[in-house]
Amino acid sequence: MKRLIYISHATRTFTAQEIEAIGEVSAHNNQRNEITGVLLFIQGIFFQILEGKPKDIDVVYGKILKDPRHNEILCLKAEEHLKTRMFPEWSMRVINFEEAYSNDVLFYPIKTLLQTLTESFTILERYTPQSVINQINKGINPLRTPTHIADKIIFFSDIFAFSSLTEHLPVSDVVAMVNHYLSLVTEIVTAHQGEVYKFIGDSVMAAFEADQADQALHAAMEILEVLNLSRQKNRDQPLGILYAGIGLSYGSVIEGNVGSPLKMDYTLLGDAVNTAARLESLTRQFPYALLFSREVQQRCQTAPWDIVDLGMHSIKGRSKSVAICSINHPIVKITASAQELYSLIQHELEKLSR
Length: 354
Description:
It is a single chain. The model has no long low-confidence stretch (mean pLDDT 86). This protein has helices spanning 16-32, 54-66, 97-100, 107-127, 130-137, 162-168, 171-191, 213-233, 271-282, 294-298, 338-353, and strands at 2-10, 36-42, 45-52, 70-79, 93-96, 148-159, 195-200, 203-209, 244-259, 264-269, 290-293, 307-313, 322-327. Strands 6, 7, 8, 9, 10, 11, 12 and 13 form an eight-stranded mixed β-sheet that branches. The chain has two domains: 2-140, Alpha-Beta Plaits, CATH 3.30.70; 146-353, Alpha-Beta Plaits (2-Layer Sandwich). Helix 7 (171-191) packs antiparallel against helix 8. It has 354 residues and is α+β, with helices and mostly antiparallel strands.
């Protein structure tokens, strides 16, 4: 038997009659599948315990995740291989604290407990990789997820001349610039089905599945295009000198939990990660803001990319040379050399500093 406990926020105001109706429908459906449990409702927060056969619980929870009546769903705990039920007599007991217990002294600590749980999750969610959040919301304990090998397209990007920016700009401007950059990269990568794994200072490490080379390149191109438009709209402002480089590579990586008993990190490790980071750094030497390995180019399937073959190059940390490619497009092509671009940024920084 499996027991699953979750908490969520209502997306609208519910009357006592609606809460009662939810309980009646749930009880009817659960009785058919031999599912038992309890549902608490208190000031817009649902707290539910479900218990039954693992497959039946998974089906019900899958429907719960898609239910538009609530959001910010967090699976607090999922237990399997249980032999006894907590609520054997309740196909679904509903307790509406708004109605029955609003004047009870126990109402306030329970209300505080549930609100604190949801607020804590909202905070932790901002610092946690989406893959970990997805596992939690599926009732999977990510600490128990075994480390495994996966084929990925690795994405690295960071800001040009960031040290100079931090040296010349006020802290508030630097933070605003970094937040702007990290936000747009995260939004675009996610929109193209990629996943951001971590921020490293002003750098972003993300990954796409092995068959998503076109999506990865589309994301990179869109990021460069948005940055270009932002520079045009923000002339004589810090965002007017925001440039970035992007590197992509393909290969097998180690995915999973890495760390110590005190601090764990769900991350990606391997040669493909190192190669993507090195390719990104090479954008300072090539007149292209986007560089990717031949393996990435070979995995493209649909888009008619105008590929530029830049030849074989040695990169730090790799014994074999890497075939490097880019795309022949005005958004990607840096009109100035890396040194000229740095000089331009330096000149604009001096103007902004006056």
